[in-house]
Design brief:
Structural class: alpha/beta
Order of helices and strands: EHEHEHEEHHHEE
Radius of gyration: 16 Å
Distance between the termini: 28 Å
Number of helices: 6
Shape: globular
Length: 183
């Protein structure tokens, strides 16, 4: 879609349980760092894109260097601590962030445009206490939920990267594919 550089950051390795919802990987990738496997797959799709794979934690010590030079951040995180860290980084640096999350049969996505839209902390001032919400390990994730969230995120990213910020969806999209509820 015209993107020239993608930096992929993930500390995890591909597991068998990922394959039903994470379509960049196949059985031959099991045990491979996710960032490396994703880079290799995406590079095979378009070798003209500069793909950077970084195997690391996103934390308070690394976020500035990991996000340095990025025009925007898109997350596919599975924990609130890192989401709030990225939120605060986005707001403090003015870096657009496209949030996405999924659990079970529900998903949500929103675009944070600092000084223009509410941020995650604006919508949800405090992260939920540890152990009070379902996780991917406890509730699973229905594959199509991930694809719907990702489609929304990528559409908003393309709008931003092509200079069309005025048409970015500025709402929090939430849905449950099982009960057919959308907000």
């Amino acid at each position: 879609a015209g993107v020239g550089r993608i930096r992929l950051v993930d500390r995890d390795v591909v597991e068998l349980t990922n394959l039903q919802r994470q379509v960049l990987y196949d059985e031959t990738d099991i045990g491979t760092p996710k960032a490396t496997a994703a880079r290799d797959r995406l590079q095979a799709v378009n070798s003209d894109v500069d793909m950077q794979a970084i195997i690391d934690d996103v934390d308070a010590d690394t976020i500035r260097s990991l996000a340095a030079g990025c025009d925007l951040i898109i997350d596919g995180l599975d924990n609130f601590e890192t989401r709030y860290l990225i939120n605060d980084f986005s707001v403090s640096t003015g870096t657009p962030w496209i949030y996405g999350g999924a659990i079970g049969t529900t998903g949500m996505s929103t675009t944070v445009l600092p000084d223009e839209t509410p941020c995650l902390r604006c919508l949800f001032p405090d992260p939920p206490a540890a152990g009070t919400t379902p996780t991917c390990e406890t509730a699973g994730v229905l594959g199509p939920v991930i694809h719907r969230v990702a489609a929304h995120q990528i559409t908003q990213a393309i709008k931003l990267l092509t200079g069309n910020a005025k048409v970015v969806d500025r709402t929090l999209q939430t849905f449950d594919v099982w009960s057919n509820v959308q907000h």
